[in-house]
């Protein structure tokens, strides 16, 4: 990444080199703006490089754009994301199978076809499962990509357009002048900006609070494990048994999924270490979902932090005051939605409104009446 000296200023400063900030920066650079992305660590070091890679968010207003863009992303960025189309959800529990069949009917009605699978069909498509799998659904859309490759792809594509990514550069304060954000302050110097995008994951709340923006977040630690390689399945994106994840192109099974631990956040970021009880719990559930891979060893595990809003939906907004600040957090679905969230942020910064879908539901105004003790009320306190 381009780490030589700090510039004095930029058209747009983006705080946060996760997928949300990087995608936004790339979209902004495509519009000809001079963009600088600052991160307290390195590109994708937080949730963006540690997630399951899933890209099938049928509940989101950004869904259609997510589905339109992913198949093109390798070409648009010029670097591989390892995107693989389609997804399967299998279940061993009859009630959950019924639930996902209903989800499948809803997606089909929206124009995104889903096939029901009986146990035999599920075993044909997911050969690592067995007859304990009652069946599932096959999403003829969606997919998954490699989070590490994707953050790098965004960063390199941004740099190819003249954008800058400055790592190990923590923003401590946002300066304002005349009702606008005028500069960001870092230990390495101050950078002036015409517009500011704050996409700092769990740290966003504390960064924008001094600007008078109410941005409620609760951080939760989640974990993932990776096994030795298994024989490659035709469709590597398989969810089930409370797990989300993917089979990598090498064959490793990379899976995560609850229980999540509520934690506090600090400016330096949350702890990243996995715990052995949760690692064992994940390994057991992976072995239950894929009985024919149950003997594989776990070779890696890690923790990451999910940035939850009170209603579980992302925030993407450009509040009226200060008028040149766009804020974004994705509440646990930010990887898959990143091509679309970046597009929406670009539209807010440049045009003041999203061009391709109605994102009014994602505004901060919905939290205006939120009780100060909302975390405790939900049992989400650290
Ligand atoms: C285990 C796990 C599994 C997941 N699985 C999926 C999945 O399958 N599909 C999906 O769509 N989503 C998934 N998610 C959620 C997804 O990873 C996040 O929603 C997404 O990565 C958020 O990206 P972001 O760029 O908004 O935030 P982040 O990735 O948190 O990036 C924010 C960046 O801001 C930087 N920063 C913070 N404060 C400052 C500061 N003061 N100055 C400078 N920089 C700062 C941080 O260092 C960080 O790099 C998962 C998350 C986890 C943890």
The number of helical elements comes to 10
Taken together, the total number of domains comes to 2
CATH topology-level fold name of the largest domain? FAD/NAD(P)-binding domain
Give the overall average pLDDT. 95
Strand content range: 25-35%
Walk me through the structure.
With 382 residues, the chain is α/β, with parallel strands linked by helices. 27% of the residues lie in helices and 27% in strands. Strands 1, 2, 6, 7, 8, 9, 16 and 17 form an 8-stranded mixed β-sheet that branches. Strands 10, 12, 13, 14 and 15 form a 5-stranded antiparallel β-sheet that branches. The chain has a 4-stranded mixed β-sheet with strand order 4-5-3-11. Strand 16 (315-317) and strand 17 form a beta hairpin. Helix 1 (19-30) crosses helix 9 and helix 2 crosses helix 9 (334-351). It starts with 8 loop residues before the first strand and ends with a helix. The mean pLDDT is 95. The structure holds flavin-adenine dinucleotide.
């Amino acid at each position: 990444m381009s780490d030589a000296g700090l510039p004095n200023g930029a058209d747009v400063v983006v705080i946060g080199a996760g997928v949300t900030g990087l995608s936004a920066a790339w979209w902004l650079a495509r519009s000809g703006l001079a963009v600088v992305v600052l991160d307290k660590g390195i590109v994708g070091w937080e949730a963006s490089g540690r997630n399951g890679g899933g890209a099938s968010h049928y509940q989101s207003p950004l869904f259609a754009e997510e589905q339109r863009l992913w198949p093109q992303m390798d070409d648009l960025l010029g670097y591989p994301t390892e995107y693989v189309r389609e997804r399967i959800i299998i279940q061993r529990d009859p009630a959950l199978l019924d639930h996902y069949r209903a989800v499948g009917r809803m997606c089909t009605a929206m124009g995104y076809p889903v096939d029901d699978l009986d146990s035999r069909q599920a075993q044909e498509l997911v050969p690592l499962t067995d007859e304990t799998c009652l069946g599932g659904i096959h999403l003829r859309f969606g997919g998954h990509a490699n989070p590490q490759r994707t953050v790098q792809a965004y960063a390199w594509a941004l740099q190819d357009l003249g954008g800058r990514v400055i790592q190990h550069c923590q923003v401590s304060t946002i300066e304002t002048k005349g009702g606008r954000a005028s500069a960001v302050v870092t230990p390495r110097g101050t950078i002036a900006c015409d517009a500011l995008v704050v996409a700092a994951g769990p740290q966003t709340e504390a960064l924008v609070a001094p600007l008078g923006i109410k941005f409620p977040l609760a951080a939760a630690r989640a974990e993932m494990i990776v096994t030795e390689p298994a024989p490659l399945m035709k469709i590597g994106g398989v969810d089930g048994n409370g797990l989300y994840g993917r089979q990598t192109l090498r064959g490793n099974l990379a899976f995560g999924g609850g229980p999540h631990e509520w934690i506090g956040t600090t400016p330096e970021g949350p702890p990243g270490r996995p715990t052995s009880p949760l690692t064992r719990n994940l390994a057991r559930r992976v072995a239950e979902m894929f009985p024919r891979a149950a003997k594989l060893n776990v070779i890696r595990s890690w923790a990451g932090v999910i940035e939850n809003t009170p209603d579980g939906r992302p925030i993407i907004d450009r509040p009226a005051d200060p008028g040149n600040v766009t804020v974004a957090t994705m509440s646990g679905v930010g990887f898959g939605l990143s091509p679309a969230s970046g597009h929406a942020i670009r539209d807010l910064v440049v045009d003041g409104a999203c061009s391709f879908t109605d994102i009014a539901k994602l505004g901060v105004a919905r939290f205006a009446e939120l009780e100060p003790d909302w975390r405790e009320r939900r049992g989400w306190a650290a």
